[in-house]
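Entry 14. Structure prediction run on the chain below.
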Amino acid sequence: MQEKVRITPAKLSELVESFDLEILNKGTDYDSREIDISDVNRPALQLVGFYGNFDVKRLQILGRAEMTYLGDMEARQRHRVFDDLFHCEIPALIVARGMEVFPEIMDSARRHGRTLLRSPLSTVEITSRIIDYLNRALAPQITRHGVLMNIYGQGVLLLGDSGIGKSETAIELLKRGHRLVADDAVEIRRVSDSLYGAAPEIIRHYIEIRGVGLIDVQQLFGMGAVQFETEIDLVIQLEQWVQGKFYDRLGLGEEKYQILDVELPVVTVPVRPGRNLAGIVEIATMKNRQMKYGFNTARSFIEHFDRQVDRMGPQSGEKA
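Output returned:
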């Protein structure tokens, strides 16, 4: 079954709150306005009247260069410039560096019902921060059934059929000092070429154990046992042990697991009574870190074995 990829627009009001932007004029669509594009624009060409290829969906940012240029204009010309700009249904106009706003800008914003904001940050800083914020907020996202833990600083996604023991393994890992990110439902989003996982807000910090019920991990284990989000570095697939099935015993497979077109290393762990799953998960995580730094235990063993065989060579002088 194909997974449904979601892209949720960012609310303008939440962006304003996140960056503590000063609201100079609240537009008529301020509370309902959504942003669905991560690009922003410095309206330089628009100040001289060119609107070819102008994308009205982008946030507009005025920096020192634009404000200096506007200062050389007459008031009547500034009115005309911003009447043209605010005639377009832009999400908002942000004035950087905490600069004073010309009365003509304020007047045009009020007449057209557009949102006018101000930030004390430099133009480059507020621009880069907003682009990063929107890249994360508008990242493609899916929800997977599984458990996400932070183990030794790596995000480990445990997958497997319902009842295989994912939550029980997570409890044992918590007792060993690792952190829970999400249980049962993991919200995964792709930012550039990396995957990040978090829990839906309603079940954040909770684990369900069959026969015991819900556990509030934060209350039971403390704040140090939970984490809001983590980058996903490794997938561990838990499956029932199948007699006669071949399982990689050296670890040479280096298999990959694809989520949102991003490939992650995956380890398949067969489950049967008596296996210490938490310990196996810890070892798999440490091995994955080794491989990131270029050390592959299986390949090192094979090379060592080949060297030993080469040194022994054919036994000379033996009779057929």
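Residues 277-292 form the longest helix (16 residues).
Filed with the rest of this week's runs.
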